[in-house]
Write a structure and sequence with these properties.
CATH superfamily of the largest domain: Nucleotide cyclase, GGDEF domain
CATH architecture of the largest domain: 2-Layer Sandwich
Number of strands: 11
CATH topology of the largest domain: Alpha-Beta Plaits
Shape: globular
Structural class: alpha+beta
Largest sheet: 8 strands, mixed
Oligomer: single chain
Strand content: 25-35%
Number of domains: 2
Number of helices: 7
């Protein structure tokens, strides 16, 4: 059987937690995943029928056609696939929800006339798909639909070039140790509505928040000194409640503390309301 050696981009997916769902649910999941992959590859400009596909039972390995741009397997493919699965999960019951581990690699493989593919790059792809970092990423982000781990080689050729739709800063370098395989990989968890905050941490205050707080505190009149003589406190209260002579006539409103006993709301039309303890 004649074989040819070709450089191919390789993509693999595995369904998280597929065991124990039952045959009916798993079959439905497989159908949804296959349709989502087909549509996502097509949307990315990669002919699904020209791909060499290998069913993994609870996942799939896909060898893209020769000449396929590696960048297209990240954007739009990964983002398109994630969006389609997220839309499915919104309406699906728990037994048929889909979360995926994904891996990307590229290299020279042997391709037979019958569509069989072999070579070291496939082993690398399998180790990436099963690696602990991509498993841990989904375990630590239960709301995430997918997590992607790409090889160092794929990162160099497709990610760090700054192509449109691919943000290098969204990938984090990790160590991959699987069986006899040891290498670096790059982890990416597609956006899922925001980064979860660590327990016990508080949101950062922006400078504008601090400025607003400072400005508001400057506008608040200080409370009268309770140790001051009563006449001084009354004079201070009167000064704060008196309307500004330069203020326009109408419904001018003055808000003030009245000797610590309440809040006086004085309107320019002569109406006065006092709230708080009397």
């Amino acid at each position: 059987m004649e074989e040819v050696r070709e450089y191919r981009a390789l993509f693999a997916v595995d369904i998280v937690g597929s065991s124990g769902r039952g045959d009916v649910a798993l079959e439905q999941i497989r159908q949804v995943l296959s349709a989502a992959l087909h549509a996502s590859f097509t949307r990315s400009g990669v002919d699904w029928d020209d791909c060499l596909r290998h069913d993994l039972g609870d996942g799939m390995r896909i060898v893209a056609p020769a000449g396929t741009p590696e960048t297209s397997l990240i954007h739009p493919l990964v983002h398109e696939l994630t969006a389609r699965l997220r839309a499915h999960n919104l309406l699906a019951g728990k037994p048929t929800r889909i979360r995926l581990r994904m891996a990307l690699h590229a290299g020279s493989v042997q391709v037979g006339r019958d569509g069989t593919v072999s070579g070291r790059p496939l082993e690398v792809l399998a180790r990436l798909l099963d690696a602990e970092p991509v498993r841990a990423a989904l375990a630590q982000a239960p709301e995430a639909t997918t997590a992607l781990l790409v090889s160092e080689h794929f990162h160099e050729t497709a990610v760090c070039q700054g192509r449109p739709g691919i943000e290098p800063a969204a990938f984090r370098r990790v160590d991959v140790r699987e069986k006899e395989f040891a290498a670096s990989g790059w982890l990416h968890v597609p956006a899922y509505g925001g980064t979860p905050q660590s327990a016990g941490s508080a949101p950062d205050r922006t400078s504008s928040d601090a400025d607003r707080t400072s400005s508001e505190s400057d506008r608040v009149s200080p409370a009268p000194d309770p140790t001051a003589p009563e006449s001084d406190r009354a004079s201070s209260d009167a000064d704060r409640t008196a309307p500004d002579a330069d203020a326009p006539a109408g419904n001018t409103k003055v808000i003030s503390k009245a000797s610590g006993h309440g809040v006086i709301y004085a309107l320019g039309n002569g109406t006065m309301n006092i709230g708080g303890k009397q």
